[in-house]
Amino acid sequence: MKSGAYKLTGHILWRDKYHHVGSTQARCEQGNPLDNFSAWKESSQLSVPGIHDTWSHQVHTSFGLPAAPQWRSEPVYVEHGCLTTTPKLNNHTVLDGWVLPGLVDVHSHIGLVAEGVATPEVTIRQAQKDAASGVLLVRDCGSPGDTRFVDEHFNVARILRCGHHLARPKRYIRNYGRELESDSFLPEAMVEEARAGSGWVKLVGDWIDRSEGADSTLRPLWSRQALADGISAVHEIGGRVTVHSFSHEAIDDLLDAGIDCIEHGTGLDDDHMSEIIARSIPVTPTVLQVDRFNDFADAAGTKYPVYASDMRRMFEQRYEHFARAWDAGVHFLPGTDAGGYQKHGVMPSELQAWLRFGATPADVIDCATWKARDYLGQPVLEEGAPADLVVYPDNPTASPCEDNPLGGLSVLSHPLFIVRGGISITPQVTQHEVED
């Protein structure tokens, strides 16, 4: 598929300076648009694919080092799949509006359905659905199958992979994860998954332990020493580790072990929040998934009353909890937990839900675009970067008002244009066509 030549006009969320501009621009001018994203990365790889050089690793561990992008009113051009302010071609198709970097979903499961591994056809449709919603970059947070074949398609979200979920027998959803008989196997398995994916590892940090009968509830899966050894081993090869955690009990060991990122985070207390703020550990709130905690409690029925009570308590306190974390200064990342039991293509709804705990549309857009991309070490809208962008009809950062309680976030459901690697993407699927 050939990339187009475009002139972006209106308001563009643009970063003036970044690293590796010259070499990347040269590669983009000569390469296949499907390869531009890889070209951007390959000049700064470490031992694990998808993990970058020291400068980018500082971005991974400390928000705010690069200059924040600013709204630019001068035109930006797309040529040979890349962005430039100094065009060399004569004819461009004009795309006018409010231009953002492609949205990011740091917690998705492409290739996962309720029963386990999705078929190749469903896997591709999931990635297409995400792209059609404006999500052009996904950190796949655990998948039971090999989804690298998706990368050969142009109308899909780009994927950074965590490999398999790592869990213990009978301590996670059946057919979803790689189950380890002993936590002594954890460090080796973590390194294997980091190397098999994009340098990220996904741990299941807690799950219901049904061996306690009626007293069963969420319990940690791993010893503190196994966590510390595993996380250290992954860090040694340049990788990072994120963890599923609903409970309060699991957090202390995870923090002591050096965890890099926390998914859900519904068990954090004020001391935990202070610690993760000090260490710039981000949290992915997955609001739409936490909205289902009552369903989890109902499924437990009367067989596991303690677990059901704990899940209902967290459900009832969810927005107060996230508001406390947000107000304290916890760094939030955008994630839908799509796949399995959650639909793909719902990032606009996830981000709109952030308004309920006090985030403004401007905050949300920053977190869902350039801040998430900086954290993952991936390009935003800048000179020489791959042209992964979404054009909206109105200002997505506009404040809510009585007539529009969602403010600018309402436009996220109605993108005008979606461009991935310089190729204009027409949404390929509709909601009812995706089995996810």
* Unreliable residue stretches: 19-27, 29-64, 428-436
From the alpha carbons, calculate the radius of gyration and give it in angstroms. 21 Å
Shape: globular
Structural class by sheet pairing and helices: alpha/beta
What is the mean pLDDT? 89
> If helices are DSSP runs of H or I spanning 4 or more residues, what is the number of helices?
14
Strand element count: 21
Q: First CA to last CA: what distance?
A: 27 Å
Helix content estimate: 25-40%
Largest sheet: 8 strands, mixed
Strand proportion, as a percent range, falls in 15-25%
Structural write-up:
This protein is α/β, with parallel strands linked by helices and 436 residues long. It is 31% helix and 21% strand. It contains 14 helices and 21 strands. It has helices at 21-30, 36-42, 54-61, 120-132, 186-196, 224-236, 251-257, 270-278, 287-290, 293-300, 305-316, 318-328, 347-353, 361-376, and strands at 6-14, 70-72, 76-79, 82-84, 93-101, 103-113, 116-117, 135-140, 158-161, 165-167, 177-179, 200-204, 206-208, 218-220, 240-245, 261-264, 283-284, 338-340, 389-392, 417-420, 423-424. Strands 1, 2, 3, 4, 5, 19, 20 and 21 form an eight-stranded mixed β-sheet that branches. Helix 8 (270-278) links the parallel strand 16 and strand 17 (283-284). Helix 5 packs parallel to helix 6 (224-236) and helix 10 (293-300) runs antiparallel to helix 11 (305-316). The longest helix has 16 residues, at 361-376. The radius of gyration is 21 Å and the shape is globular.
